[in-house]
Amino acid sequence: MSKITIYEKPTCTTCRQVHTALVESGVDFNAVNYYVEPLSRPKLKELVQKMGIRAAELFRKKEEVYKKLNLAAKEAKLSDDEALDLLVKYPDLLQRPIVEKGSKAILARPAERIKEIL
User: How many domains does the chain contain in total?
Assistant: First the structure.
């Protein structure tokens, strides 16, 4: 059985809910605070591929950096490579938590989505 990894920001409410759900389910998992252990570009690209989404779909639209960079106007035109570069450079842009298990990854928003991977 593949081990579960949660990429999280521990102060995030949804991340805490998912973390608690994993603890309560009794599964073995790794928790990665991506502010302490930044996600590499290759790892982020792998997670996007496992989720089957465009990298820009991981943007947090309410973040100040999203507004500052005027990404609302640019998002549709960004390539995955450009979006990945932004997500690596500005970790606040990254939607969370991302939960990975084997060949699958999900954005666990809302927290109940964790059931899809358990």
Answer: 1
